[in-house]
Design a protein that fits this description.
- This protein has helices at residues 10-22, 61-71, 85-90, 93-114, 119-124, 157-176, 198-207, 227-240, 257-271, 301-307, 315-328, 330-336, 340-349; strands at residues 2-5, 27-31, 51-55, 75-78, 126-132, 180-185, 188-189, 212-215, 221-223, 225-226, 246-249, 254-256, 283-286.
- By secondary structure, it is α/β, with parallel strands linked by helices.
- Strands 3-2-1-4-5-6-11 form a seven-stranded parallel β-sheet, sandwiched between helices. Strands 7-10 form a two-stranded parallel sheet.
- Helix 1 (10-22) links the parallel strand 1 and strand 2 (27-31).
- It is globular and about 70 Å long.
- Bound molecules: nicotinamide-adenine-dinucleotide (NAD) and 2'deoxy-thymidine-5'-diphospho-alpha-D-glucose.
- 2'deoxy-thymidine-5'-diphospho-alpha-D-glucose is lined by residues 83-85, 132-134, 186-187, 197-198, 201, 213-215, 220, 222, 257, 289, 296.
- InterPro entries: dTDP_Gluc_deHydtase, NAD(P)-bd_dom, NAD(P)-bd_dom_sf.
């Protein structure tokens, strides 16, 4: 039995589906179901006894401790987080609470449970912390891609909260010998991606005839990885990673945002042509994100050399699969856009921004 936190979110739900397709070991999915958590992602597991769902806030120390005692997991894969950079700029508090305090609370509950295990169980236990390339900050024009030894320089409140959680995880290994693993991954894309993020927002806005917002000049570069390749990398690190180590994960797919949006438009022109005109005509340049990082790129050499992981998808194959998935799952998008999550945002953040109205532009 393993614990997966944040297993109703984008990457977490892909991971749960992926894990249960490949493993007999059950998953206990611990998720608060914030605006980003969606049990519809896991509808295919409704009658699968190997998927146990617990609605819980990772900041709730008592419940977390009780859950460890009740289920006695052999590993934790920690995805739960506030994940959207724009929201962290608008309201950082929830990012500090979940990403830093929540990770601390989870670490404490996991460590005190781990202390009760036999020597053999202790040695086999793993705590895998899922983090991001954003902790390294922005590359300059002559810099090499991020390696595991690149200095941390987080630039957004989101990135700073993830950096803080990485440091906490590191300290639990160094101080207590707690068996941790950390992964720092580049931008994911693929099925079940919440339509506030660039790729799903572009697809859903294009189909709805709305503007496609490009921040600033659109020349910011991200290194894109298809989500199932990230899930496979996490399984690989969990299985073979050296305790206490960190592993960078990336797809060797550095693309400027404007090129990504143009590619999506071209694929849509081919698959669902408009009666008049082209999708690129919907592109709208809007005010840049404050403090916007210019360039991310991952050197994934360590995980490739040491653990033998390599991405299966190219950007060209993955982006086509992604567009097709959104065309085939318009009811999933419509449900998210129905407004249920807007009420959650207002209750919890007390504010809205343009992107709370999925599909709107600034
Ligand atoms: P997401 O926003 O889609 O999902 C986050 C999940 O965490 C949701 O199901 C939400 O309900 C849950 N959650 C949030 N706060 C919680 C709390 N206090 N207690 C319990 N559950 C809570 O995020 P994602 O894009 O799937 O990212 C998952 C993880 O991967 C995050 O840690 C993120 O930092 C990291 N990551 C994401 C990317 C990416 O491109 N999306 C890249 C690298 C790393
Ligand atoms: O690099 C990994 C990170 O990737 C993860 O840690 C984050 O959780 C994840 O959200 C993602 O962060 P980004 O900020 O890179 O993702 P986003 O999809 O929001 O933006 C991608 C790029 O596109 C970024 O440079 C901002 C730009 N953008 C985004 C939106 C939503 C636009 O130009 N227009 C938009 O409407």
């Amino acid at each position: 039995m393993i614990f997966v936190t944040g297993g109703a979110g984008f990457i977490g739900s892909n991971f749960v589906l992926d894990w249960l397709a490949a493993n007999d070991e059950p998953v206990v999915n611990l998720d608060k179901l914030t605006y980003a958590g969606n049990l519809a992602n896991l509808a295919s597991l409704q009658n699968d006894a190997k998927h146990i769902f617990e609605q819980v806030d990772i900041c709730d120390a008592h419940r977390m401790q009780a859950l460890f005692e009740a289920y006695r997991p052999s590993a934790v894969v920690h995805f739960a987080a506030e994940s959207h950079v724009d929201r962290s700029i608008l309201g950082p508090a929830e990012f500090i609470r979940t990403n830093i305090n929540g990770t601390f609370t989870l670490l404490e509950a996991a460590r005190s449970y781990w202390m009760t295990l036999s020597d053999g169980e202790k040695a086999a236990f793993r705590f895998l912390h899922v983090s991001t390339d954003e902790v390294y900050g922005s590359l300059g024009s002559s810099d090499l891609p991020f390696t595991e030894t690149t200095a941390y320089a987080p630039n957004s409140p989101y990135a700073a909260s993830k950096a803080a959680s990485d440091h906490l995880v590191r300290s639990y290994h160094h101080t207590y010998g707690f068996p941790t693993l950390t992964t720092n991954c580049s931008n994911n894309y693929g099925p079940l991606h919440f339509p506030e993020k660039l790729i799903p927002l572009t697809i859903t806005n294009a189909l709805a005839g709305k503007p496609l917002p490009i921040y600033g000049d659109g020349q910011q570069i991200r290194d894109w990885l298809f989500v199932s390749d990230h899930c496979a990398a996490i399984r690989c690190v969990l299985d073979k990673g050296r305790v206490g180590e960190t592993y960078n994960i990336g797809g060797h797919n550095e693309k400027a945002n404007l090129d990504v949006v143009r590619t999506l438009c071209d694929i849509l022109d081919e698959l669902v042509p408009k009666e008049q005109g082209l999708y690129v005509e919907q592109i709208a340049f809007v005010t840049d994100r404050p403090g916007h990082d210019r360039h991310y790129a991952i050197d994934a050499g360590k995980i490739e050399r040491e653990l033998g992981w390599r991405p299966a998808e190219t950007f060209e194959s993955g982006i086509r699969k992604t567009v097709q998935w959104y065309l085939d799952h318009q009811a999933w998008v419509a449900d998210i856009q129905s407004g249920k999550y807007l009420a959650w945002m207002e209750r919890n953040y007390g504010q809205r921004d343009a992107h709370d109205e999925v599909g709107a532009t600034t």
